[in-house]
Amino acid sequence: MLADEIEDEQLESEAQRAKDAKNADSRTGRSPGRVAYDRLKKDKVAVICLVIIVFFILLAVFAPLVVNLQSVDPTTGVRADVGTVHTELIDFNGLPTVGMSSAHWLGVEPRLGRDLFARFAFGARPSLIIGFSAAAASTIIGVSLGLIGGYLGGWVDKTITWLIDFFLSLPLLLVVLAVVPIVQLRIAGGGRLTAEQTSTIRFWVLITILVIFGWMGLARLVRGEVKSLREREFVQAARAIGVPTRQILFKEILPNLVGPIIVSASIAVPTYISFEATLSYLGAGLVEPTASWGRTIADAQNYFEIYPLWLWPSVIGLSVLVLALTLLGDSIRDAFDPTSRR
Amino acid sequence: MLTFILRRVGLAISVILATLVATFVVFFAGPSDPAQSLCPENRCNAERLQAIRVNLGLDRPLTVQFVEYFKGLFVGRDFEFAGATNHCGAPCLGFSYHTGRSVNDELFSRFPNTVVLALMAAVIFLIVGVTIGIVAAVRRGTATDRILIGGSQVFGAIPYYILALLFALYMVTFWRVLPQYSSFSEGPGVYFAGMIAPAFILGLVTSTSYTRYTRNSMIETLSMDYVRTARSKGISERRVLVNHGLRAAMGPIVTILGLDIAALLTGTLITEKIFEVDGIGRRALQALFDDDLPVIMGTVLMAAVIVVLANLIVDIGYSFIDPRVRLA
After folding, report:
1. A16-49, pLDDT tens digit by residue?
2. From residue A276, how far is each of A262, B97, B204, B262 by CA, in Å?
3. Domain range holding B193?
4. Does A31 reside within a domain?
5. d(CA B290, CA B284)
6. Do B166 and A315 touch (CB under 8 A)?
7. Would you call B78 helix, strand, or coil by DSSP?
């Protein structure tokens, strides 16, 4: 019975393949990027994920405006914002005296009385900025090193390959955990800095370190592709008629790698966001007073029994954002993959 | 073949040496002051702090410290603590600044806990991942396939530490469905019971990637001619799947398992922290918090050696199976 099913399946997939081949004929003249885009538009999961991501981006960009939609708090007499501490909303056990209300959609934070909805909305900012900027920077570095190593060969290539091997065999999380405070001290140590300044420096230190330890995968991929592309006729022809190396790299070789680069960059974004949150949980990530989901989860876990409202918004925000970005990345990979059936 | 092996071994050694130098420079030349963290300024005056530094050998030039450390790794070295001489045999990783125990003891007494956690998780993710992968491959294109693969995709995409944390908070602390971790000295029964929760969540989340590898690998082998031949001979479907399909599909899976050791180490670090398992990862986190340089160096080196060795074994093993690799 199982065998029958599999046979049906095979017949079906052969028919599918024949149909794909026919479609491919009619598709001649469209770039791989265009084909991928058209396939992506038809992918329901991708569209839903994109809507979720756009929602979070809008929330992050317009956080101050959205937070201002909350009404004025009757006890404090002011509208809640992201940083102001309101100890008057806290009882002597450190627990809030107000729950969810029109003034505080998600209640207030135990101990400090800061507005939890504001912390949630502003918390989307560092995650998104870190994810996208670290992905952009590590993509640029990975592609450049891969191109240089793959095209030039020789000792340059050997050095780059060795560096890739070296960075890949470091116990990443452990090293990053150790390096973040050291770099932070080097840059910001000794001076009298305000909490905000320290927090901002930590933010950029984190992005830099994520990039330093995150370029290897793409570099290896690009290097391999370039090594095989440079032996192809069109590249040799370009070299023979004297096209300068830079032009060969960027005009002849790079356009062939757009697919893998976009796929790798889109999968890098959620990886970085998730890594940053893990670092925050383990104590080497973002620091107060920056509102951050990872930081909030670390602080709120001790209160999860008596005040779960503190923990859950950040847990859901982080999970849903990373999930949407990852599934969108998977869809983009499928869209660029000519053998996938979706 | 021999040149390939020699080249790979040479590469592995150079990577480990570079890790040694890099970690030493980063940590020992770094701005952190172990004397300060041992004895904060409000309790110790400058003289006392200096005495601690001299005692730890931190007052000497960095190169001297490095040569001693390096020598200690291969021939052992002697430490002088308050008049008494302490010998530390090779491979000597020094003594913890905080507990005074040798780093080798600190790490090897905890190593079994990490290994038990990783092995239990590996058993879970191999069984769960491979089984679900096979089922999804056999039922390819059906609703079962989509639910299984979609589910594992969703599960694998959520940050691991969030899943583990929620699992620990609710299943262990709040509802007490599963027991908390307790050390081996309290009895093997309690010990292994306490390992169930951390190994379960680590194994379950890791299994998601193996589900996908197995499914893809199985689909590929099941479409091979020899599988069709086996079916046409009238061999039972179960034997076709296990003996012909799975056996061929396991090759790539075992390779990935070897290359995934680094990811598994990261997984145990987070898991140990969340479930308070007394393993190497938790000790390393504590050492980072204390500026306990010898312990940090020891764990980083140990992890690097494990990862490099695992990659080396996979590479060399693979080159026996597939000779084309040697040319790369």
Report:
1. 555 555 555 455 567 777 888 888 888 888 999 9
2. 22, 30, 22, 18
3. 111-278
4. no
5. 10
6. yes
7. strand
Residue A195 tokens, joined: 């909490």
**Any alpha helices (H) in A43-115, and if so which ranges?**
44-61, 63-67
User: Among B304, B300, B302, which Cα is nearest to B262's?
Assistant: B304
Q: Are B242 and B222 in contact (CB under 8 A)?
A: no
- Could you report the per-residue pLDDT of B76-95, keeping only the tens digit for each? 777 766 566 777 777 888 88
Q: State the Cα–Cα distance between residues A290 and A82, nearest whole angstrom.
A: 9
Question: Distances from the Cα of A296 to the Cαs of A197, A285, B42, in angstroms?
Answer: 19, 11, 31
The whole-number average pLDDT for the span A109-135 is 91
Whether B178 and B269 map to the same domain: the answer is: yes
- Whole-model pTM: value is 0.88
A247-260 pLDDT per residue, tens: 999 888 998 898 88
Residue A162 sits at the chain B interface (C-beta within 8 Å): yes
Pair B205, B253 in one domain:
yes
Residue A272: band (very low, low, confident or very high) from pLDDT cuts 50, 70, 90? very high
In this prediction, residue B8 carries a pLDDT of 87
Same domain, B82 and B127: no
What is the number of other CB atoms lying within 10 angstroms of the CB of residue B305? Answer: 18
Determine the pLDDT at residue A83: 78
Residue-level pLDDT at B192: 93
Q: Tokens standing for B99?
A: 């507990």
User: The tokens of B23 are what?
Assistant: 């970690």
Task: Note the pLDDT of residue A1.
Answer: 40
How many other C-beta atoms are found inside a 10 Å radius of the C-beta of residue B56? 20
Of B161, B223, B288, the CB nearest to A178: B288
Domain presence at residue A7 = no
Specify if A27 maps to a domain: no
- Cα torsion angle, B247, B249, B252, B254, sign: negative
Under the banding of pLDDT at 50, 70 and 90, the label for residue A2 is very low
Q: Are B87 and B27 found together in one domain?
A: yes
pLDDT at A53 over 90: yes
CATH of residue A73's domain is 1.10.3720.10
Would you give the end-to-end CA distance of chain B in angstroms? 12
Alpha-helical segments (H) within chain B: 2-28, 34-38, 46-56, 62-75, 103-138, 143-157, 160-167, 188-222, 225-232, 237-239, 247-259, 261-275, 280-290, 293-321
Interchain CB distance below 8 Å, B19 and A166: yes
Find the CB nearest A319 among B23, B162, B270.
B162
Low-confidence ranges of chain B (pLDDT < 50): none
Specify the higher pLDDT residue, A85 or A127: A127
B9 at interface of A, judged by CB pairs closer than 8 A: no
How close is the nearest chain B Cα to the Cα of A185, in Å?
7
